[in-house]
Write a structure and sequence with these properties.
Arc Repressor Mutant, subunit A
């Protein structure tokens, strides 16, 4: 028995769908040579992963979500240190922003990304593009082609060996066939090792 959807539940479903679409549409925040993956919480610079401490990452997200607007120091404090956390907020906000500038190669005197607004907070002054897919080498990174090439080479070698065996006298066929099987087994083992190296490479890149 189906339960009719009320107006309230329909609105909630639409809100969830809208929120999901909004998140997907803005997963990647791109600026300069950087791309921020908000779902995986990773920053890439020209395709290479850049390691960011948690609070530095959160600060960057807060600024990128409101480009051209002032993000107050109080807003950063509330985002980074929940109520009841006992730290020197002013000093920690300064340190966190300075670490972020260092990662981005930015300067407080001639900011390309983060401008200090005296007595208020900070403003992201760069251009931010929201995308659903990552651009550049970080997105196009593929496993090395070595395993596939090795497997293909093994198949070709097997065919060549079989042709050679077929052209030999019967007295030599048995020994050649044994050598062929041994060679193919070694090639398959090598292919397996190379595939493992490829998987390890992908895991490292991720």
């Amino acid at each position: 028995m189906s339960i009719p959807m009320t107006a309230s539940s329909a609105l909630n479903a639409q809100a969830r769908e809208s929120k999901s679409s909004s998140i997907a549409a803005s997963r990647y925040l791109c600026f300069g040579g950087f791309q921020l993956d908000t779902q995986r919480e990773l920053l890439f610079k020209e395709g290479s992963k850049v390691r960011l401490p948690g609070k530095v990452f959160q600060t960057l997200v807060a600024l990128l979500e409101r480009p051209g607007e002032v993000v107050t120091r109080e807003a950063l404090r509330e985002k980074l240190w929940p109520e009841g956390t006992f730290v020197n907020y002013d000093a920690n906000v300064n340190t966190t922003v300075n670490k972020l500038r260092l990662v981005l190669g930015d300067s407080p005197d001639q900011p390309a990304y983060i401008e200090t607004i005296p007595r208020l907070g900070y403003c992201f002054v760069g251009s931010v593009e929201r995308r659903t897919e990552m651009l550049g080498s970080a997105a196009s990174a593929k496993p090395p082609a070595v395993p596939a090439l090795a497997a293909g080479a093994a198949a070709v070698a097997q065919k060549v060996e079989a042709a050679q065996v077929a052209s030999m006298p019967d007295s030599e066929n048995a020994w050649s066939l044994l050598r062929s099987k041994a060679w193919v087994a070694a090639a398959v083992l090598l292919s397996g090792v190379l595939i493992g190296m490829g998987i390890a490479y992908l895991a490292y890149r991720a």
